[in-house]
Design a protein that fits this description.
Arc Repressor Mutant, subunit A, 3 strands, about 35% helix, alpha+beta, globular, three-stranded antiparallel beta sheet, 2 helices, about 90 residues
Length: about 90
C-alpha cells in the first residue's frame, strides 16, 4: 500500500539518483527503472520532491519531460523557507 513513509523513502532514492546524474537529470519515463522504485511510487515520488522544491521539470522536444534537481539542491542543502509540508 502506498503511504507517506514509502513515498518518502522513494523520494530519497530518486533524489540520490538525480544527484549522481548531475545536471543531466532523468526523463520522467526513466524513473520507474530506478532499482526498488516501481509502480505507484515511481509516479508519486517526483511530485513529492517538487512540492518540497527539490526538483524541477523541463519540457523538451515533443512530449519529453525531464526531472532534475532544483537549484537549491545542487549543493545538497535545502532552503527551509521554500519547503512545503505534504501530508497524505
Amino acid at each position: 500500500m502506498l503511504n507517506e513513509e514509502r513515498i518518502g523513502k522513494s523520494a530519497g532514492l530518486l533524489w540520490a539518483t538525480l544527484r549522481k546524474n548531475g545536471d543531466e537529470g532523468l526523463f520522467v519515463t526513466q524513473i520507474h527503472k530506478i532499482p526498488r522504485l516501481k509502480g505507484d511510487e515511481a509516479i508519486a515520488t517526483p511530485g513529492w520532491l517538487a512540492r518540497e522544491s527539490k526538483v524541477e521539470f523541463h519540457t523538451g522536444k515533443g512530449k519529453s519531460v525531464t526531472v532534475s534537481l532544483g537549484e537549491i539542491n545542487k549543493t545538497g542543502r535545502v532552503d527551509q523557507s521554500r519547503v512545503v509540508a505534504v501530508r497524505l
